[in-house]
What we know:
By secondary structure, the chain is α+β, with helices and mostly antiparallel strands. The chain is built from 5 helices and 8 strands, in the order βααβαββαββαββ. It starts with 9 loop residues before the first strand and ends in a 12-residue tail after the last strand.
Amino acid sequence: MSQANAPLWQRRGQLHNAAIPAKLKGWLCEERSLTRRLRLQCSQPFALQLISQRWEQPLADERGALGLRAGRLALIRQVRLLCGHHPLVFARSVIPSQTLRGTTRRLARLGNRPLADLLFTHRSVQRGEMEFTLLRPGHTLHGLTRQALSLGDEPLWGRRSLFLFRQKALLVSEMFSPAISLAAALDD
C-alpha cells in the first residue's frame, strides 16, 4: 500500500465532528468495549467470527503506530462481529512478537473469544487515545472491510487504539458497517 493510499488517522480533537454521521457517532466514539455494547444492543444473538490469525507484515501505518521496523512480522488477528447473521464490525488486531512473550502469550490463543473480554477486564491494560478515519476505496483496510462485512464501495468509518497489556503494545482497529446504527432493530 502506498503512503498516498494510507488512511489518515486523526485524534478526536483533529476530527471535524460534523463529518461523522449522527447515527454512527455514538458507536464510533464508544470508550468502553464495543463487543459488550453489541452484546447488549443486538436484537439477535451476538457472534464473533475469526476470519484469520497468522503471522504477516503489518500495514505501513500499523507499523508506524507500533514503532515496528519494516519487514518485521506480527500476529494479525481479523474478526467480524455479528448481530444475528448481520456482520457489523470488522476488527483487525496487530500483535508484535515481543508482546506475545511471557503471560501475554495467551493473546495468541483466543480463537473465537473476543479480545475485548481480556482488554477491558484486566487491570494491567491501558488504552491509548482513539484515532479515527474515513476509509475510501483504494485503502487496503477498506478492501478488507468490504470483504469481511459484504459491503459495497461506500466510504467506511473506522477507529483504532493502541493498548498496553502488561506494558506490551498491540494495535486494535475496528471498521464499521453503516448498518451498525440499526443493531437493535435488525431482523433475520
